[in-house]
Amino acid sequence: MATIPTLGSFDPPTTTADEDSLEDSARALDAQSGRIIGRGTETSTRMTTTAVEFSELVSEPIRTRGGEFLSAATAAMEGAVWGSAVTVKWAGSVREYKEAVKALVAEWEAAVGDKFGIRESEVGGGTPNLTPAEREAAAEEATAYAGQLKLAEMNAAANAAYEKFKGDAADAGGMLKGGPTPKNLQAMAADGGVDSWSLFNVFGMNAPMPLTGDWGGVLGKDLLDAIARGNIDDLPAEVRGQLGVLRALVERAHHLQPLGGELSAGELAYLERFFGAIDKSIFDMPELLGDTGWSDADKALILGGMGGGLLAVSDERLGGGTSRLPASVRGFVAAYAGGKGKDALPYRMSEPSDGDDLRALASMFDALDDDGMALMQGGRDFSAAITIAAAEHLDSDGSGAVFTISEGTARTLLDHSTANFEANTAILNGDVEHPFYKEDTAEHVLREMFGHRWEDGGATGAKLIDWIPRAATSGDKGLQDLATEAAYHLITTMTNDKPAEHWDESAYTFFTDGYGDIGGFDKAPLGVANPLIAQSMGRTAITYIDYLDAPNVDRDSELTLSDDPRADDMFLDKGTRARFVELVMGDKTAGNALGEAAYAKVIAEAGDMGDWKGWQDARKEALEDGGLIGLMDTAFKNVYEDATGDAADEATVDKQHATWVRSASTILKEIVTELPAVKPIKGVGAMLIKEGLELGKWGPNQVESSGIWQFSDNSAPAQGDREGDPEYEKFGFEVTHSVVSNLLADPKSGVDIADVRAIDSRLVEKGADGEYRLRPSDELLKANDPPSSDQHRGNLDFREANAALQELFDDKTGKLYESYVDAFVDQRKDQ
After folding, report:
1. CA distance linking residue 300 with residue 363, whole number of Å
2. Which distant-in-sequence residues (6+ apart) come within 8 Å of 367 by Cβ?
3. pLDDT > 60? residue 785
4. How many CB atoms lie within 10 A of CB 191?
5. Which of 7, 121, 456, 752 has its CA 20 to 30 A from that of 594?
């Protein structure tokens, strides 16, 4: 008679692997990878930075070793990440096997407890005359038979699970040994869900993902099918896994954009086919997802993938472009940026957008930002269309009308669209045209974007231009030309004093008087309504300050973009310069920064007086420098007149200039401190831009002029009593100080610090190194401040200092000084 199986009869293979310990180890490996690459990068950077302090014979080997170290660190990081990923996968296999065994054991225990389904009362149903002993024997035999069948079934299931477990172990071992090859990565991702696909972006940034157009089409169809079913509670796991592919591809595109790499044909086809499959639902997707019961994370996964995918497939630099976008999105581009060229489409005046397409794009970009890909860019035309559309649909009157968009929506859109500098420039220079506004597209966008009174002070609107100074000083000639072109068209468009076709008033009038009653202004200028836009314009003015003091020849503004580094890239006529500076002056922070930078430039350049050949050079410099400062005069007076109904008086203007001179001396003090081993004037241009772009850095000096910039009523400013010294005398002292500083820095000048000390010991101070040096000009100017203590006791009056320092001039320099200062003052007053 067969034996009835018992609980102990089923004994599936076990494992000593501990999935929790494995996952802890994986986390430790992953954390270690960050430390490895972080320390490697830090050390390499330190090596490279240090290397520039030595000769090329020394620095090049250091750079090379730094690169080798970073490569080793990167390899170590990759090994740690890959080990972590494989360990996590192996831990999953351990957990899966243990859970399978646990389920089998539970099933076996239930079967034994149920006597394998055999009931003694049911045994021998066909032979009712069995004795109790016979019935019991028959029941035991039936139970033994059923038990053996169940045991065989359980052993087969356990063996299958164990064989899979052994196979998983072999795969994990092979992956660890083989490393992150494309085949191993694809195998890892195939059943690993969303996160596993991201491994392509750790190890395969320079290698295309193994994708085809068919895969993208399948994802699109499956996604729409899942949405159509609607009554399901969760996004199907297989669709979520496919979305992991899309997210990984977006991450790869995001990584490639700053590197200049391209997506493969298969990757681009994948995106095209995906969007082609969902084309009619793209702008409806946020609403469609809202009707499902899916989690916020799953909705964000879909929307972020769509937003990043659209940006990637539209980007010409990645191999994409407008022609690769789905039809619905191409229509969006054509409606706002499709008005130029043989393929231009007519403007859809009869079908105005209700803003839903913009809100849909914003929801996609929001999800993309949350996934760590903020500022990912789209292609030129797609980005330009988003910028133009966002500007056109801004809710300017706060009515919340259905065809407008909120500032928050606009901010999300512009974060991405203005990240493409080529798109920004194409809007400003007319390469992209709105189908209705055509050649006036730049003015249309500037009026809409800068004309809106932003709740954030204009930070969002300024995104269209605030990249210009950084690009202009990047050292990349292509980027520099792009910035110069954008700056030129920004300046000339905003200062145009003749009305364009679509408006009754000129752009200049609009930006100086178009913002209504704000503070003391009946017709406020741009800088009062949107100070951060004016400050961005101020940084642009500082960056191109050399074009503001160019000789005032009688010709029109012109953009040249010369390849000759000694030649000018543009010319701005006198009226354009004055009007642009006035626009900047509308905000006191921007105005102060520009005034400070202008004086710092003028004083530093005047310090080269010892190298001038004669009075002709002195006069030429004075005309340019005086003209630049004269622009500050004119702009300040115009802004003040708009606020008060009367022009600023001479004392008020002089007080403002005196403040700028003081701040300029502080800027120059820092520049000279940073360039101790060279003649102070050399390199001042680049340093000036660097310092000047940090608007507000010289705030302590600006405090003195805060009262001048307060427009509290419409009365004319009170006449000042001219306490202290006229502004031009302080300027003359600064020039003297700059000349002497340069003479001291030039070993061939014949002037040294002992000569200065011999004239008046109060002109020098002893440094921490025990050496004497010329006291900074801003300290000498403090002698004229009302002292709160005896802090200025022993100081020279700056007139005394000026006269004393001029004793160091030779006959030639002294005459040049007089010629320069006299001509400077005359030129400034003539503006």
Report:
1. 9
2. 299, 300, 301, 302, 303, 304, 307
3. no
4. 10
5. 456
Annotate 461-499 with DSSP letters as a single string. Answer: GGGGTTTHHHHHTSS-HHHHHHHHHHHHHHHHHHT--S-
Q: Which two tokens stand for residue 61?
A: 């080997």
The per-type count for the chain, helices as H runs and strands as E runs, is 33, 4
Residue 208 near residue 264 (C-beta atoms within 8 A): yes
Separation in Å, CA 673 to CA 376, 543, 704, 776: 39, 22, 24, 10
Query: Chain-centre distance of CA 420, in angstroms?
Result: 10
Whether 740 contacts 669, CB under 8 Å: no
> Per residue in 578-621, pLDDT tens?
999 999 999 988 998 899 889 988 988 888 888 888 888 999 99
Is 109 a residue whose pLDDT tops 80?
yes
Q: How far apart are CA 711 and CA 693, in angstroms?
A: 26
pLDDT at residue 217 is higher than 90? yes
Express each pLDDT in 311-324 by its tens digit. 999 999 999 999 99
CA distances from 228 to 221, 280, 391 (A): 10, 14, 35
Report which of residues 491 and 635 the model is more confident about: 491
- Mean of all residue pLDDT scores within the chain: 80
Of these ranges, 44-48, 134-138, 463-467, the one predicted with the greatest mean pLDDT is: 463-467
Residue 303: closest CA among 231, 235, 228, 350 = 235
790-817 core/surface letters (b: 16 or more CB in 10 A; e: else): eebeebbebeebbebbbebbeeebeebb
- 353-363 mean pLDDT: 89
Q: In a 10 Å sphere around its CB, with 0-12 CB exposed, 13-18 middle and 19+ buried, how is residue 774 labelled?
A: buried
Bridge partner list, 405:
394
Determine the Cα–Cα distance for residues 346 and 534; give it in Å rounded to an integer: 35
pLDDT at residue 482 in the model: 96
Tokens of 539: 């940084």
Q: State the DSSP string of 690-727.
A: HHHTSTTTTHHHHGGGTTTT---SSSPPPPP---S--H
Task: Give first-to-last CA distance, the chain, whole Å.
Answer: 121
Query: Could you write out the three-class secondary structure of 1-30?
Result: CCCCCCHHHCCCCCCCCCHHHHHHHHHHHH
The band of 414, judged by pLDDT with boundaries at 50, 70 and 90, is: very high
The count of residues in the chain is 831
383: enclosing H helix or E strand: helix 380-392
Q: Please, which pLDDT band fits residue 301 given cuts at 50, 70 and 90?
A: very high
Q: State the virtual CA torsion across 672, 677, 679, 682 in degrees, nearest 10.
A: -70
| Mean pLDDT on 515-520 | 84
Does the pLDDT value for residue 652 go beyond 90? no
The per-residue b/e assignment along 336-363, b for 16 or more CB within 10 angstroms, e otherwise, is bbbbbeeeeeebeeeeebebebbbbbbb
Burial class (CB in 10 A: 0-12, 13-18, 19+), 464: buried
Please state, in angstroms and rounded to a whole number, the distance separating the CA atoms of residues 470 and 122: 90
Could you give the C-alpha distances from 439 to 128, 350, 498, 509, in angstroms and in order? 104, 21, 15, 19
